[in-house]
Design goal:
Elements lengths: L6 H16 L2 H18 L6 H8 L8 E4 L11 H9 L4 E5 L13 H4 L9 H4 L3 E5 L4 H11 L7 E5 L2 H10 L5 E5 L17 H26 L3 E5 L5 H8 L4 E5 L4 H11 L2 E4 L11
Parallel strand pairs: 1-2, 1-8, 2-3, 3-4, 4-5, 5-6, 6-7, 7-8
Helix pairs in contact: 1-2, 7-8
């Protein structure tokens, strides 16, 4: 993963790359200055650390274990039954959100189980907090903004996460007070989770590999700052002590996904001391990428 340091290094790198490409000091200076001004004008500040800690660590000093999709291995994913099962175990929940306004799950067939006749969530303060919302649609930003305004308790008990940076940016535009996180898996454009190439075409694979490098660089140096995220959800295979420290220096907390074996859970909880997402709270299950 591309981690080059802080802002001075970042802008120096951009200046050198543009200079090599254009051989023009004027263009290098102009483009580097434009990048600086863009971030200065359009970035969102991070939510206060004290409020982020309330969400990320409801139990002070303890690692939070988040049930992926409500604990999809232990109960039907993203259902009220799964939510209640997780609540019994006292764990935060991670849910999908579908484009339908007010819908609590990404599965359209389940919308009727968690919404009323006006398409609004039933008792979100009871069923959804603490909640990790995984955004699946930009259209949901306006609907979720309305939920936050009607149930202010969610500001201190929920976080919105997404693989799509534009979704997180749209959420911060809609309501800058909402806690957010970017989700990322390096090489996700060119390979599947198990490392298998997505494309049989060699040229397409190499092209998407280049896009992966660019996307990874952007996540670590531009997008987190632009969106003002408080946490960074990263696939477990790329987590290390140095990686955790890298983000800690930027006021961002690392959350690993998806941790599905007892040995892995012990390692992330007792050695790395970071929050993690799992498909099961009761037993080992198949890996999820």
């Amino acid at each position: 993963m591309l981690q080059f340091g802080d802002e001075v290094t970042l802008y120096s790198l951009v200046f050198v790359l543009v200079l090599v490409g254009t051989r023009s000091p004027m263009w290098s200076t102009a483009l580097t200055a434009s990048l600086y001004l863009f971030l200065a004008m359009f970035r969102f500040p991070q939510v206060a650390t004290s409020r982020a800690q309330k969400v990320l660590h409801p139990l002070v000093g303890k690692v939070s274990v988040v049930a992926h999709r409500g604990g999809g291995h232990d109960a039907p994913e993203n259902t009220i039954a799964a939510i209640r099962e997780v609540r019994i175990r006292g764990r935060p929940r991670h849910l999908g959100v579908c484009p339908t306004a007010g819908c609590c799950t990404h599965n359209m067939r389940l919308c009727g189980n968690c919404t009323n006749k006006n398409n609004h969530c039933k008792q979100p303060t009871d069923l959804l907090a603490p909640l990790w919302v995984f955004f699946l649609a930009i259209q949901a930003a306006a609907a979720l903004k309305d939920v936050y305004k009607r149930y202010p308790v969610l500001y201190n008990s929920s976080i919105v996460c997404s693989f799509e940076p534009k979704v997180i940016y749209r959420m911060r535009q809609s309501d800058p007070e909402v806690l957010t996180a970017l989700t990322h898996r390096p090489w996700s454009l060119s390979t599947l989770g198990d490392g298998t190439p997505r494309f049989s075409s060699m040229w397409k694979h190499h092209w998407m590999t280049m896009m992966d490098i660019l996307l990874d660089w952007a996540h670590h140096h531009l997008l987190w700052k632009l969106c003002g995220v408080s946490a960074f959800l990263i696939q477990k295979n790329f987590v290390s002590q140095n990686y955790i420290q890298y983000w800690a220096q930027r006021g961002v907390e690392v959350v690993a996904w998806t941790i599905n074996t007892k040995l892995e859970k012990e390692y992330f909880q007792e050695v790395l001391h970071i929050n993690y997402i799992t498909d099961s709270l009761v037993e080992d299950c198949e890996p999820h990428y």
